Amino acid sequence: MVDNTLDSPKGPEKKREILQKLRNKVGPENVSDKEIDKIAYSKDYWPITLRWVLEGKTPALPDLIVWPENTKQVSDVVKIADDEEIPIVPFGEGSGVLGGAVPINGGIVIDIKRMNRILEINDKNLTVTAQPGINAMDLERALNKEGYTMGHSPQSIYCSALGGNLSTRAAGQFSTKYGKIDDMLISLEAVLPMGEIIRSKNVPKSSTGPTTERLLLGAEGTLGIITEATLKIWPYPEERALRSYSFENLENGLEVIRKILRKGMFPAVIRLYDEAETARHFYQTSRAKGKCMLILVMEGNRELVDLEKKVSERMCEEHGGIDCGEDPVNHWFDTRFNVKEASDFAPRDIVFDTIEVSVTWDRSLDLYSSMISAMKKIDGVLIASAHASHFYPQGVCFYFTFGGTPVKGAKPEDFYRSVWNAAMRSCIDSGGSISHHHGIGIMRANWLKEELGQSFEVLKRIKKTLDPKNIMNPGKMGL
Amino acid sequence: MLDKVKKYSWLTGAIFKANLSTKRQILINFLTAKKKYVPKAEVDSILKCALCPNMCRFDCPVLKVEKSEASSPAGKMRIAYLLETGKLEFSEDAIDLMYKDADCDACKQWCPFNFSVGELLVDVRRDIVERGLAPKSLLEFQERLKKEHTIYEGGITSLNMDPKKGGDVLYFAGCTTLNKRKEVADATIKILEKAGINFTTLPEEWCCGAPLHTLGFHDAFREFTEHNLKTLKKAGCKTMICSCPACVYAFKELYPRNKLKVEHTSQFLLRLIKEGKIGPMEMNEEYVFHDPCVLSRKLGIYEEPREVLNNISKLKLKEAYFNKKDTRCCGLGGVLGITAPEISLKIAKNRSSELKEVCGSIVTACPACEMALKADKVLDISEVVLRGMENRNGG
What we know:
The structure holds 2 protein chains of 2 kinds. By secondary structure, chain A is an alpha+beta fold. Chain A has helices spanning 11-26, 35-40, 47-55, 71-84, 136-145, 162-168, 175-178, 181-184, 250-262, 275-281, 302-318, 327-335, 341-345, 361-376, 412-429, 445-452, 454-466, and strands at 31-32, 64-66, 88-91, 108-111, 118-122, 127-130, 148-149, 185-191, 197-199, 225-232, 234-235, 239-247, 269-273, 292-300, 322-323, 351-360, 381-392, 395-404. Chain A folds into 4 domains: 11-113, Uridine Diphospho-n-acetylenolpyruvylglucosamine Reductase, domain 2 (2-Layer Sandwich); 122-235, Uridine Diphospho-n-acetylenolpyruvylglucosamine Reductase, domain 3; 239-335, Alpha-Beta Plaits, CATH 3.30.70.3450; 341-438, 2-Layer Sandwich (GMP Synthetase, Chain A, domain 3). In chain A, the strands form 4 sheets. A 7-stranded antiparallel sheet of chain A has the order 15-12-14-13-17-18-16, sandwiched between helices. A 5-stranded antiparallel sheet of chain A has the order 5-6-10-8-9. In chain A, helix 9 packs across helix 11 (302-318). Chain B is an alpha/beta fold. The model of chain B has no long low-confidence stretch (mean pLDDT 95). Classes of the chains: A alpha+beta, B alpha/beta.
C-alpha cells in the first residue's frame, strides 16, 4: 500500500533536504520523523486500521509529521510539498471512521493541533472564530463557560477537532435544532493545494456568486486545509425538557416525528431506535419491550421549551406512543459517549461498524428494510440494526450498526467489505445518499462516482485545477 | 448477574438466531481469538485502551501541551501494545514516551472501562525496569532515594520533634512538605497543638514510596513499604494524617493491607472542627480552591476541604471552572516533574492561568500543587486554617 515517496525513490538525502526546509519554515520542534510519531499518525478510527493495531502492522506510515502554528506556516509547508510533489495528509484528531486521515501514500502529515486557539467570541453577532485544531469539546466547554453553546455535539466531540468536523461535514446529536456543522459555518480561511490562502467574508449571507470556500467543506483535505472558521453560536439553553415514548413499530415512530417537524417544531435531539436497538439500549425500560423507543430533548428558551414539550407529548400520545418518562433519556445522556464495542469485540475477531445514510420520508421505510436485509444476507452477520437520529421536514438519517464475524475461512477485512458493499448497493438502489455525516474517506471512495453521477466528474475537474499534482490527501474520496 | 444477562440479551438473542456456521465461529472466537492478541493478562487493558478512539483525549493535560498523537492516551497505549507484544523495539523514544504521563486520572473520568492510563503505564514501566532498560536518570533517582530516603537530593527526613513525644495520632509530612513546603508542616503541627491533640511524628520519615511505584521500581517500592509498615507499627498510632494526598493514596491503596487509619489533613481538620476542637476562625480574604488530582479523583475527597474553608468566617471561597473531580492537573502529577519537566511546567502554567482568572490567591491541599502553581499567593489549607485561628484568637 505504501509508496514512501521520501524513503524509496528519492532516497535519504532528499528526505534530509526536505526535512531541513520544513524545519526552517516551522521550527525544528514542529517537525518529526521519529518512528513513534510515524506509527501514531499511521491510522485513524477506520475499523481496518484497528485490525492493523491488533495485528501489529503499520502499512501506512507517513514520512514526516509537521505541526504548523499559523496559516502562513501551513501555506509554506504546502508550497514545499507542491514543489517536491510530496503527498500531504491533513490530520485533526484521527476520529474519522472511513480512513480519510490515513497516509496510504506516505508523505507529510500536517497535524493542525497546534493551531487550536479561539480567536473571538462575538456576543452581538453570536459567532465564534477559532482555529481548526481546537478539540470540539474544548471549544464547546469554552463557549459554555461564557454562557453559549454551538449545539454541535457529535459522539466524537471528545476526540475530534473542528477542522476534521468541517472537512467531513459532521453532524452532532443535537442537530435537528442547531443544524449540522455545515449549517453552522459562517466563513472560513483555507490554504489551497498550491499554497494560496483564501478567506471568505464574515457575513450571514451574500449573493456574490457560488460560494467557492464551501468546496472545502466535506472535501476531507483533498482540496486544501481549513485554517480558521467562524461559526454560529447560541445563548446556553435556559431550559431542557426530556421525554420518551415507545411505539409499536418503526413506522409509527417515524410518522409522529415527521408530523412534529411538519409543524415547524425542532426538538434538539430526536432519536428513534428500531426494536433490536431498543432491546440493546433500553433493556431496563419494561414499557419499551418489543417496541421502538423514541427519545426527545427540547431545549432553549423556557416558554418555547414548555410549548414544544406540550405539543410533542400530545402528538406522541395521539399516535399511540407509550410514555416512558425521563429515565431512558437520562440513560442516553449517561451512556452516549461509551464507545467500547471495538475494544470489547475486535480482539475477539468480531467486526462492528456503523453506516449512516439519508433518505426522504417517502422512501425511508423501504430503505431501512432493504439495508437491514442486505446486511443480514452476508454470511457471518450476527446483528444489523438501526436508529434514526437526524431529522428534517423532508426526511431522515438512519444510523445502522452491524456486527458479525467472518465464517468459512473468510478474512475479517473481506467480510467487512462485503457487508459494506451490500449496504451501499442497497442504499443507492433505495434512493438514499450513501453518507449523511461521516464522509467518504477510503471506504466509500468506490461508491462516490455512482452517488454523484456526472457531478463526480465536475469534482475531479475542480480537483485537477486546484491541485494539478494531486498532493492533497491523494487516494481519498476516489480522487 | 440478572442485570448482566438482561444487558447482553440483544447479543445472546442474536447468537441464538444465527445460522450454525456463524454460531460455531462466534463460539470459537470467544474461546480462542483473544489469545492471538493478548499474550499476557496485563496487555488486555492496554489493548482495549489502544483500540479506543481516544475518548478522554480532550482532558489529558499532557496532550494539551504536547499536541501530538503519540502523547495522546490511546496513542501511548498503541505504542505500549506494540512494545509489550514484541512488535516494536524498546527504542529510547518509545521508552521516554512511556513516562510522559501525569497520573492525574483525568482519563478515568471519561473511560467506559474505568481505566487510568497512569496505572496502565505502571505495568509497562515495570517491564522496562525488568528488561534493564530504565532510563539512567531514573535509575539514579531510585538509587538516591534508596540511600537518602527522600526524593530530594540532600533533603531532610525529619521534623526533629521531641522523640519522647508519643500519641494516638501520627503526623506524616511527606518528602515534599518537609523539603519544599515546611511551612505546611509547621502550620499543621501548630493546629494540632492548639487543638490539644496528642500526636507524634517519626524520628526519620522514609518516603512513602509512591514515586518508586509509579516509575515501575517494584522491588524498591516493596522495600519502602516493608520499612514504613514496620516503623509505623512500632510508633503504635491508631491514626496517621498526611499533608500530601499522594502519601495518603500510597498508604491506603498501594500498600499491602494494613490496619492503619490514614487521613488527609483536610479530613482530619474537618473532624476537629466538628468536634469543636478548632474554635472560631476568621479571615477577610478571597481564595480560589484548587482540587489536587490525587485528592479529588483518586481519593474522592473534595467536599471536606471546602467544608473546612467554609467554616472560616469572612473567607470568600471561589470555585475554578474546572473543579472537584473535573479539576485539572497542576503539572507535578505522578512523576512528571522528574520524567518530563518541560511538559510539567507548561501544564502548571495552564492551570495557574485558569485559577488566576478566578482569583489571584490560591488555596489547595497538596504540597506538590503548591510548588507547581504560580499566583500572588499559594497556600495550603492548613496554613489558611491556622491564620484563621490566629486572626480570631490573636495567635
